[in-house]
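Give me the 3D structure for Phosphate transport system permease protein PstA.
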Amino acid sequence: MNRRKIVNAAFWTGCLVCLAVVVVPTVWMLTEVIGRALPVFDWHVLTENTRGNGGGLRNAIIGTVVLGLGVLLVGGTVSVLTGIYLSEFATGRTQSLLRGAYEVLAGIPSIVLGYVGYLALVVSFGWGFSLAAGVLTLSVLAIPYIAKATEAALGQVPTSYREGAEALGLPVSFTLRKIVLKSAIPGIVTGMLVALALAVGETAPMLYTAGWSNTAPTGELTHSPVGYLTYPIWTFYNLPSQSARDLSYNAAFLLILFVLLLILIGRLVSWRSRRHAEG
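Predicted structure for Phosphate transport system permease protein PstA (279 residues):
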């Protein structure tokens, strides 16, 4: 009996230690960023473009949002279709090959993807530092995560849903659209938002493909560099100018708010989907 108590206490102690290893650095990071950003935060950061090592972050905020929407449009479409194919149609060797391909892609360092994007899109295709190059590179980065989330979400839909639809003579396309996908939406949306949060937090791929611009995106897909929030975080932090360092703190703070907003949106979509399903 004493041995069982000791093992139980050791188990829970190990769980608490592992939890602390995750939570403590996160809380420390958030406290440091917020503690440095709030004292120097000013609303002009949201309304002015970056000027040299100062100014605001309007161009970077708009650029980050545009890049994120591009990733959802390009990467999200490809990933969701890939996940649907793997879960519902692919079998045998084809399924194993495609699944292995996106798992390998997930293990490639982001800086390598950025360099490949630079050589292929910026140099070979002649697009220059641009929105299109940045979106495609981040989409490749996000595809494995969204595809995996889509496949997993579809795999959790009860088989009885498909069997019932088949027994009623419903077409496969109707079953997939109206029954299976509807039930898997929370998992798919969560995967997309997690991948989007990872993508917008990248710096190295963007340095290679999107470059940097002190102005808001013009709408041109090529030969038009784009601003993004991770650039001032990485570049301005070590500059001697106090205004530059303040801008880096503000950029980090806004990026954290952006990620938290994505989490809240994901929770809201999951809650509404569950409520609709129960209703």
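The chain has a mean pLDDT of 87. Let me know if you want a second pass.
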